[in-house]
Structures are given as structure tokens and as C-alpha cells.
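User: My collaborator sent over this chain with a note saying "see what the structure looks like." That's all I know about it. Can you take a look?
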Amino acid sequence: GRTTSAELLAECSDDEDVLLWCLRWRGLNCSLARSLGFSESYAQRLIERCPLSCGLCEGDADFCMDSPYFSDEQGYSCSSWSGYDCTRLYSGYSRMGMLNIQAVCPFSCGFCNEAAPADGRQLLGEQVEAVADAACEDDAEFRILNHFMCGDFVGKTCTYSTIFLEPRWLLGPQAVYKWHHKLWSHCPVSCGRCVVPGRPTTPDLLLECEDDPIWDEWCSYTIRGEACSDWQSTMLLANPHDAGSFNRTLFERCPWTCGLCTPPSCPGSTFR
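Assistant: Without extra context I'll predict from the sequence alone. Here is the result:
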């Protein structure tokens, strides 16, 4: 019969029937499942069937290893990816397929040797006080998996759970640092890690009845002629915890698009 949860825990192993699913959580605290929006039954099954990946076993476990059972979308094993940049999107592979490679082949992808700073383990929950910086600018050419750009993170938590709720890309603190440091360094404005000098405040935008000049395209693209109060009917957030931040950013930085003000007018003989 199927191995029981107690037997899996005693053997310090994951259920082979759901091995790839377990590997997506390897190196993470699986108690995050509920806070990330997964159901209670999902979280409970994760704890029961994936004790090794969830770090529930006694003693130290080597979390950075390839799965010996994995074959990618083209039939290649993990070892075939040694020396390649697994963060790129290659011809013949889907974005989700590449994320699976990153999740189950950390050794071959070179994530195991990635040096992280001492505070790397806390980066997901790190609160950064933004400071004015003349060099504060997003990289317009930056793309994640050749698709997502900095603007896709405006108003949202600047982590990869913003795009993909299931944390298959999180491989422990070293890879967490690798992924997020790249995102934050290329998208400091969208991620709120610096302040553009002279950027209008929310009262300034309301007074002039204009959208944030840095995010004006984001404002118009996000709403697309709809009422701002109805954004939840047209915008699907992968991480439900982003709702408050997204709503606040939308109304604070897009007052003109949201119809929160009336543009100032001048008599015909005067100029502003």
C-alpha cells in the first residue's frame, strides 16, 4: 500500500507519487502555504506527503540537489542543464517548463553555489525604506522570462509570487536572493526601493489633476477606460495579499484616470 505519513517522516523522504510537487517547496517553510492563499487541505497534504522538502526531518538535509526522476519538455534530464542559464527562456520551452527546471534541477542550474549575503534569508519579508536617489530608474529593457517587465510589479509585492502564486521558483535562501536581487536591482522604482527626486506627491497630483508622470502609461493601461473602483473585476492578482497595495497605488498615483479630480481651468486670456 501507499507509504503512510508517519513512515515518510521516519524515513525522511517525500512521497514519490507527488515528488515534483514536493520539490517545488524544497527549502521553504511549508507553513507559508496558508498565508500564500492555498487551502487548508492543500497545506495539510503538503506537510504529510513532503516531510523532506518541508524540512520536518531530524538532522540536516541537503536541500540543494537535482531530482533523478525529472525529464523536461524536450525529454532532457537535470544533468543536461549543467552550464546553461536556467533563468532564460529557450526555444522549445514554455515559461512554466523553465520554472519547473529551475525548481527541480538547482544543482545543475548552478543555484547551489550562489553566494547570498548574511541577510539573504530574510529578503522575502524585507521592508526597505526608500531614499531619494538621482539614479533611481527602472530598466526599460529588463524582462523576466522574456515576458514580464518592471511595470508588471507596480502596486504589488515585488516578489515572484506576484506572477506565479505557487512558489515553485523558490529554492531556499540562496536562490531566493538570486531571483529577487535581480528583480529589485533592475526595477527599483516599481519595487519602491528608491525615490525619484522631484517626483510629485499624491496631493500634488490631485491639485494638478494629473497622473504620476512616471506611471501614466501604467494608469491608463491598467484601467483601460473602466472605473477604478471596479478594478478587481478586470484585474486578476496571483497573490491576493497584493490587493490592498494595488488599490492604494491606483488611487494615489492615478487621480486623473480614476476621475478623482477636475483639471484646473484658466480664463481664456490667461496662461498657466
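A starting point for your reply to your collaborator: The CA atoms of residues 94 and 138 lie 26 Å apart.
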